[in-house]
Amino acid sequence: MLEARLAEAAILKRLLDSIKELVTDANFECNEEGINLQAMDNSHVALVSVKLSASGFKKYRCDRPLPLGVNLGSFTKVLKCAKDDDVCIIKAADDADILSLTYEARNSDRIAEYEMKLMDIDADTLNIPDTDYDARVSMPSAEFTRIVRDLSQLGESVRIEVSKEGVRFISDGEAANGNILLRQTDDDAPPEGVTIEMNQHVNLTFSLKYLVNFAKSSTLSNVVQLMLSNDVPLLVSYDFNQGHIRYYLAPKIGD
Amino acid sequence: MGRQQTLGKFFQMP
Predict the structure, then answer these.
(1) CA-CA distances (angstroms) from residue A159 to A78, A155, A165, A176, A185?
(2) Is A219 strand, coil or helix?
(3) How much of chain A, in percent, has pLDDT values that exceed 70?
(4) N or C: which end of chain B has fewer CB within 10 A?
C-alpha cells in the first residue's frame, strides 16, 4: 500500500499543471524511495520525468512497488479541489483501482476526501543514457519563460546557440525575427544570475510550442537548467525541495 | 524550419 502525506498540495497542483498538456495518461511509479513518473507526448518528441523523493513528504510509506495509472485531466480536476496550503494525503491499497486523496485545511477543521479511478496503462519506459553535455546554462526560470513566450510570437522554432559570447536564442519567423543574448553574469549567481559552462560550441534548433509548455514549471523553481549537446535531445531541468521535473526534447534538423 | 526528430532515435526502448 501507499500512504504519502504532503505538507502542501501546491506542489502536486503545480506538477500536474506542468505535465497535463503534454501527456494524457501516465503511471506514477511508487516505491520506497518515492514517486516517479516518466511519460512521452503522443508524437514521441518530448519526454517528461518527475521525481518526488520520499524524504520530501511529511510521512511516506510504500511497502512494495506500485504503479498508479492516472488520467492527468481527472487528477488535475481532483487537485483543483485542494487549496494550495492544504495538507494532502494520498493513499492506495495494493492492487486497488482507486486513489484516495484527503485535503486537511491548515487553519480549520475542514477535511475533504476524494476518490479517483485508477487505470491500467501500458507505457514504454525509455532508457535515457547518461550524457556529458557540451553546454550547461543556468538562468532564472522567469527569464526562460519570457524568452520562449516572446519568441513563440514570431515563429515556430528557436535556435539555441551557446558560444564564448553567451547563450543566444534566435527565432526566424516569416514576418519577423528576433534574437536574445544572455551573457554570463559575473556578479550574480543563480537564482538571479546566469551561469554558462561550455566545453564546445553548441547550435541546436527546437520547437517552441514544447518549450512554452515546459516553462510552466517555473512555478516550481526559480532556476532552470538547460543542458545541450549537438545532435542530442535538450534537457530542461527544474529542481525543487521535494524532487525535480525534467523534460527532454528532440531537436529539429536541417531543411 | 527543419525536420522534427523523435526521441526514439536517441533513447533506447528496454
Answers:
(1) 38, 11, 15, 15, 22
(2) helix
(3) 100
(4) C
Mean local confidence (pLDDT), B1-14: 85
Nearest to A211 by CA among A155, A140, A135, A157: A157
Tell me the C-alpha distance between B7 and A197, whole Å. 25
C-alpha grid cell for residue A117?
A: 479511478
Distance CA(A100)–CA(A70), nearest Å, equals 12
Pairing, β A98-104 against β A111-117: antiparallel
First to last CA, chain B: 32
Q: Would you state the torsion angle of the CA atoms of residues A237, A231, A154, A182, taken in this order, to the nearest 10 degrees? A: 60
Contact A129 B11 (CB under 8 A): yes
Contact yes or no for A58/A19 (Cβ under 8 A): no
ipTM rounded to 2 decimals: 0.93
β-pairing verdict for A202-207 and A157-163: antiparallel
A180 and A169 in contact (C-beta within 8 Å)?
yes
CA distance B8 to chain A (A): 7
Residue type, A8: E
Residues A58/A6, Cβ–Cβ less than 8 Å: yes
Partners of A255 on chain B (C-beta within 8 Å) are: 1-3
The shortest CB-CB distance from A253 to any of B3, B12, B14 is to: B3
